[in-house]
Amino acid sequence: MITKSGLAIFAACIATAGFAPAAEAGLFSATGEVIAVAADDVYVGEAEGHLDGSGTVVLRSQKNPALKCVGDFTSNAEKGGSGQLQCSDNTTGRFYFKRLSVYKGYGVASFSWGDMNFAYGFKPEEAAPYLRLPQNKKLARNGTEIALVDR
Length: 151
What we know:
By secondary structure, the protein is α+β, with helices and mostly antiparallel strands. 15% of the residues lie in helices and 52% in strands.
């Protein structure tokens, strides 16, 4: 038996199915916070994922705000995802991630200088179990920034 609300949702899906430009404009996308740790630096930013599994990510170093990394990714529920980051210091890294839900996950980016661990969709205190933090450090908000602080 279909309820009135179920019928309304179904009708809305059918009505919007023919409007691909609307999907490209962000109607069927979600944006979430990304927290990354590389050596003794924290990077923060956002990822935007689309209904088709594609997306973009932008990260900025908290220690050196001029250092920015941008990239693209693809993903699916079964296999997780992968992508490429290009940083403003001319380094590139390939990353892989595991989806825990549509909005949360974690992964690692590999660069020539080392690894960057990241988690998305979490508050800093929730992200810590999915990140390799330096010994005796934890993530904490420091005003508007997220920083590594002593335990």
